[in-house]
Amino acid sequence: MLQRWKFLLLTSLGGIVLLLVLTNEVLSSGNRRAQQAVASRAQYIQQSQAIEPVYRSMLRTLAELAAKNHDEQIRQLLASQGINYTVTAPSAANGSPAGKPAAEPAAP
Predict the structure, then answer these.
(1) Alpha-carbon distance 48 to 44, whole Å?
(2) What does the buried/exposed string (b/e) look like for 64-77 if buried means 16 or more CB atoms within 10 Å of the residue's CB?
(3) Distance of alpha carbon 48 from alpha carbon 13, whole angstroms
(4) Segment 46-105, tens digit of pLDDT
(5) Distance separating alpha carbons of residues 47 and 39, to the nearest angstrom
(6) Neighbours of 85 (CB within 10 A)
(7) Which bin fits 99, alpha (ψ -120 to 50), beta or left (φ > 0)?
(8) How far is CA 52 from the centre of its chain?
């Protein structure tokens, strides 16, 4: 038969171990959710990188059309998204056609 102090000590240690197990489970569950969120974001970034050239081309074409047609609404739409462009006069040195943006639009 255990002495009273040994029984209390072992019961207390058992309770502490139980609390540690429960804490471990809660932390593991939170860690799993965080890992899933990070994996989801990484997948989004990877997929975005794959279609980035399409977006860049689309933005460039839209900026060229806005510059060519002097379309203020499209210019404002692009500016609202942080995409600005400048139109340069045609010259033999730079070889860009009239009304085209001098550089690619800066994506946000």
Answers:
(1) 6
(2) bebbeeeeeeebee
(3) 52
(4) 999 989 999 999 999 999 999 899 889 999 999 999 988 888 877 655 555 555 555 455
(5) 12
(6) 21
(7) left
(8) 13
